[in-house]
Write a structure and sequence with these properties.
This protein has helices at 15-23, 31-40, 52-60, 65-77, 84-99, 105-113, 124-134, 137-149, 153-169, 175-190, 193-198, 207-219, 223-235, 242-254, 258-270, 277-289, 293-305, 312-324, 328-339, 347-356, 361-380, 390-402, 406-418, 425-437, 441-453, 460-472, 476-488, 495-507, 511-523, 530-542, 546-558, 565-577, 581-593, 600-612, 616-628, 635-664, 671-675. With 677 residues, it is an all-alpha fold. It is elongated and about 125 Å long.
């Protein structure tokens, strides 16, 4: 109901009383007249009567039980009762008024206007009891839920106890079950799972009541208890209803057992209880969190075959599933399908579509920025639900990172700040990661400085990205400064931190620092991975430390870490730089023996080793071996081989020239010519 027609003030009637009186009407245009009738005691031309929904709304608005009943009574007394039900309401309201020890309604309202609380004037239990008498049994569950949701546990439980006593006196009356289910449903909505369990009787409760209790437990993450209650219900021969199945599916999803969710859906089909849209949503969400994207998409097709129409949540899950599988075009097709429906996409759908564009790189960035413009345009015309939020900008900045467009990422980050949106560490990390991928180490450090000056605290992901950005910018000393700062801010470096710092030292050709960090990592009980070994081997290669490189390669075997083509390539390069051509070729042979085929880069390093040692024949043999092994030589390989041959030709020419000079003698004349002189 629209409250815009209500006046701000009514003479003699406070705002709280006005609010409660207005809510006791069914029509907004009749509310003012009813309020005046309540205050003046005169009759109103309104034909509306109090109903259960209005009474519940008044209670939800904060009106006390005593006030609500007093207003209903005063209004009823101001008009003629045209029905027996209205007369029964009026009589009950008079009884409530007397039980509340207040014969003067005007006095009640005036005291309430002065800020006095009438919950202690009319005891809640007695007032609630009389309020229940006003309503038909079909309306009582709604009031019970209102009591529980607004903390009126004493009223709800008192009524429940009274109904149980009545049920014992009159076994045919089943209102206690209805009220109990009402309380349990309210407990589920209010997430009061312990109170819900206290009301469950394994010997008496039906499936509906147990479902409500299970829903309450599921809403607060008590998924193990939900599964236990489900097993108990099945052992007792209970036939689960749809609500129980939904709670169990959600419990399986919370327990990260997506296979059990799918098994439960099969069980529902066998029990002729077809899964509804909520169950499908839970199953798709469980598969999404388990990174089973293909299954999530299969479920979406199944619900279509079952005649169900996907809602916005399912569309967003499907879009994320396509995006996670690097099928960004299919994700956009699904988004466009949603746009073609009568229901417009919401912010979550837009965010999912923008996030899916990451796998599209540059092309995906163009589409993501277009979607962001659509959100800005819709938000500017008053559609607040479509305005870009912090998640929108974080996704768009991540797309910039995938496209290696650091400038656009920084621009979006600044726009986010201008819009006064909440800057989180996730957003900052996305922006810094974009700078790292774009080799913009200055921007990465500037963003880190902004984080220092704000309330956003940098984490290890932040520092790892900045160190990696320094590595790509060949700023190994700044990378070490960042590593030192990690310790100063009381964070703990992880394996990624050390790998990035070691790689920065390798790029800076500082094998000593790379080895120092490698040893420090092992001293702190980190187990070096193949990335760490590869970075140190690369540093040894650039530092001409072939003996250390071969020793480190042996250490990999001893540690159970089989070298790959990158680590072998670094070792071959170290032998090349150390003029160890025979060892370099030996490593090439070893790679074939352990089923690690050399690539073009590794072979090129072997050819270069032969070139440095002036072994042009072996260089040509390595080139021939590449062709036999179907490894295609590149321009560098050919250049090195040609260089080896040219070097050999130059050496041969120099040798021939020396021999020729020797033959000519000191005067430089040919002895055969001199013989004829």
């Amino acid at each position: 109901m629209a409250l815009a027609v209500l006046p701000r003030t009514v003479p003699g009637l406070g705002p709280r009383a006005l609010w409660a009186a207005a809510l006791s009407c069914d029509h907004a245009d009749e509310s003012v007249g009813s309020c005046v009738a309540v205050r003046s005691g005169g009759s109103s031309s309104s034909r509306a009567v109090p109903r259960a929904g209005n009474v519940a709304t008044a209670l939800a608005a904060g009106a006390s039980v005593a006030l609500t009943l007093a207003l209903v009574d005063r209004w009823e007394r101001s008009r003629r009762c045209h029905s027996s039900r209205a007369r029964r309401r009026s009589a009950s309201c008079v009884a409530v008024t007397r039980s509340a020890r207040s014969d003067d309604m005007d006095d009640m309202l005036s005291k309430l206007d002065r800020g006095e609380d009438y919950d202690d004037v009319a005891p809640r239990g007695r007032g609630a009891r009389a309020l229940m008498d006003l309503l038909d049994p079909s309306d009582r569950g709604e009031i019970m839920e209102t009591f529980v949701q607004h903390g009126m546990w004493r009223d709800a439980l008192s009524l429940l106890a009274e109904e149980e006593v009545k049920s014992k006196r009159n076994p045919d009356k089943d209102s206690d079950k209805a009220l109990r289910r009402g309380v349990l449903a309210a407990c589920a909505k209010a997430k009061e799972w312990q109170r819900a369990l206290s009301l469950v009787d394994d010997q008496k409760e039906d499936v509906s009541a147990r479902s409500c209790a299970m829903c309450a437990c599921q809403s607060v993450g008590q998924w193990r208890r939900v599964l236990s209650m489900y097993d108990s219900a099945r052992q007792k021969g209970m036939v689960p209803d749809l609500a129980m199945y939904t709670s169990v599916a959600s419990a399986f999803a919370q327990g990260k057992t997506w296979r059990n969710v799918l098994g439960l859906m099969e069980e529902m089909v066998e029990a002729d209880s077809a899964p509804d849209l909520i169950v499908y949503s839970v199953a798709m969400s469980a598969c999404e969190k388990a990174r089973e994207w293909a299954l999530a998409l299969v479920l979406m097709e199944e619900l279509r075959r079952d005649g169900l129409q996907p809602d916005l949540f399912i569309y967003s899950t499907g879009i994320r599933a396509w995006g996670a599988g690097d099928h960004w075009k299919e994700a956009l097709d699904l988004f466009n399908e949603l746009k073609g429906r009568a229901v417009n996409p919401d912010r979550i759908n837009y965010n999912a579509a923008i996030s899916a564009c990451r796998s599209g790189q540059r092309a995906g960035l163009v589409v993501a920025l277009k979607l962001l413009d659509e959100m800005r345009e819709k938000g500017s015309v008053g559609k607040q639900g479509i305005c870009p939020d912090k998640f929108t900008y974080s996704s768009a900045i991540s797309v910039c990172g995938a496209a290696k467009d650091a400038s656009k990422a920084v621009e979006l980050f600044q726009e986010m700040k201008d819009r006064k949106l909440d800057i989180t560490v996730i957003t900052c990390n996305a922006a810094i990661s974009a700078c790292e991928k774009g080799a913009r180490w200055q921007n990465a450090r500037n963003l880190l400085q902004e984080m220092r000056e704000s309330v956003v605290r940098a984490d290890m992901i932040t520092y790892n990205s900045v160190i990696s950005a320094c590595e790509k910018g060949r700023e190994w000393t700044r990378a070490l400064d960042m590593l030192a700062e990690v310790v100063e801010v009381e964070l703990t470096p992880d394996l990624i931190t050390y790998n990035a710092a070691i790689s920065a030292c390798a790029v800076g050709k500082n094998w000593c620092w790379a080895l120092h960090l490698f040893d420090d990592m092992k001293a702190k009980k980190f187990s070096p991975d193949i990335i760490a070994f590869g970075s140190v081997l690369s540093a040894f290669a650039k530092g001409r430390q072939w003996e250390r490189a071969l020793a480190l390669l042996d250490e990999m075997f001893e540690g159970g870490i089989p070298p790959n083509v990158i680590t072998y390539g670094a070792a071959v390069s170290a032998c090349d730089m150390g003029m160890q051509w025979e060892r370099a070729l030996g490593l090439l042979d070893e790679m074939w023996k352990i089923a690690v085929p050399p690539d073009t880069v590794t072979y090129s390093a072997g050819i270069s080793a032969c070139d440095r040692a002036k072994q042009w024949v072996r260089a040509i043999e390595v080139m021939e071996e590449m062709k036999e092994k179907t490894v295609e030589p590149d321009l560098i390989s050919y250049s090195i081989a040609v260089s080896a041959c040219r070097r050999q030709l130059e050496d041969l020419q120099a040798s021939l020239a020396a021999e020729r000079k020797k033959e000519l003698g000191e005067d430089g004349k040919d002895p055969y010519v001199k013989a004829f002189m």
